[in-house]
Amino acid sequence: MQKARHFDAERTRPQSVVAVFDDWDALHAVLVGLKSHTTLRSGVVLHARKDAPPAASSFGLLKEMAHLRFSQPRQDIACTVGRLAQELSVRSAGGTRSLAGALHGWFSSVQAEQLQSHIGRGHLVLCLQLGTPEDFSVVCGRLVQASPHMVGLCNIKFGS
User: Fold this and answer.
1) pLDDT grade, residue 14 (50/70/90)?
2) Phi and psi (nearest 5°) for 40?
3) Sequence ranges of the domains in the chain
4) Is 152 left (phi over 0), alpha (psi -120 to 50) or beta?
5) Which residues 6+ apart lie within 8 Å of 72 measured at CB?
6) Does the pLDDT at position 154 exceed 90?
7) Beta strand 16-21 with 124-130: parallel, antiparallel or unpaired?
């Protein structure tokens, strides 16, 4: 993903990590592993799949999803309920035609297009907000091992 400029290291340090998964089982496994080893502030899952996570995936992160509609390409996106879902909904209602367009600002145009493409192919996008700077290496290491597609950094501030 794109390297960020550092004006004030504390303010501009990436606050979130992003990974892409092929299926619910892989996503669930990484969430279970991270839950016991890190302090995650919050997280978001984005997808356009028709299947629901297995009942074993009882994490709050997967319990309640908001549904967003974008016209380009015409698809419904499910997003974990919270501020990110609200902001994406506002952007969609304000005329943003695609998920990539709605994600722009948190991600570069190229990154946003990549994420839209992954979601369009049925992949699951996981964004986690780190609880402490010490969690950064643990989370990134586990996601790099578990995600077959990509792991990146961003500055999304999502929370309840």
Assistant:
1) low
2) -90, 130
3) 9-154
4) beta
5) 97, 98, 101
6) no
7) antiparallel
Altogether, the residues listed in the chain come to a count of 160
101 three-state secondary structure: helix
Name the DSSP letter for residue 122.
T
Q: Is the pLDDT of residue 153 over 80?
A: no
Backbone angles phi, psi at 17, to 5 degrees: -120, 150
Q: Is the pLDDT of residue 2 over 50?
A: no
Closest-CA residue to 114 (of 98, 128, 130)? 98
What does the angle CA 151 – CA 147 – CA 30 come to, to the nearest 5 degrees?
Answer: 110
CA distance 6 to 91: 27
Unique residue bearing structure tokens 């794109």: 2
Give the Å distances, CA to CA, from 11 to 4, 15, 30, 66. 11, 9, 28, 29
> For residue 103, what are the CA distances in angstroms to 15, 55, 84, 89, 141?
16, 29, 10, 11, 25
Dump pLDDT digits (tens) for 25-57: 888 888 888 877 666 667 889 999 988 777 655
* Partners of 79 in beta bridges: 46, 66
